[in-house]
Description:
The protein is α/β, with parallel strands linked by helices. It folds into two domains: about 1-105, FAD/NAD(P)-binding domain; about 115-160, no CATH class. It contains five helices and six strands. A six-stranded mixed β-sheet has the order 3-2-1-6-5-4, covered by helices on one side. Helix 1 packs parallel to helix 3 (about 55-70). The protein is elongated, with a radius of gyration of 18 Å.
Amino acid sequence: MYDLVIIWLGSAGLPAWMYASRYKIKNLIIGSQDGWALATSHRVENYPWILSSPGKTIMQTFKEHALSSGSDILLDQVVSVSRDSNNIFTIKTNTKEIQSKFLLMATGNNYKYLGVKGEREFLGKGVSYCASCDGMFFKDRTVVVVWGGNTALTEALYLS
């Protein structure tokens, strides 16, 4: 039985352990993949106290800090969450069933890939998925925004 289960090993979920651990709250962080968006960023320059670092390095530091502070980490996929009449959460993963008094869902984000040739190969070398994150790397260069709708328009306005 945990006091708190935090779902997602991303840049929102991992820092949540900090206060849980500081206040001696027994906590478990569950995620199917370390970091998602931040961990796949080739270079991060818009994070406090970090001038420039690969996103994967930042996420690894978060993870090491969480473990050293007393958090437990389970690399697994959550398949269901339920709550019983005593307000105890049951979190089922592919391999375990965990109970907790409280639940924090910090589900983060995931990129929508185009699936075109070279897309993954050039990630961080011209291909980006976040204008506010990576736009400055392409300053004074011609760029293309691929997709549609409000999000694409917002990204294009930011880049302009």
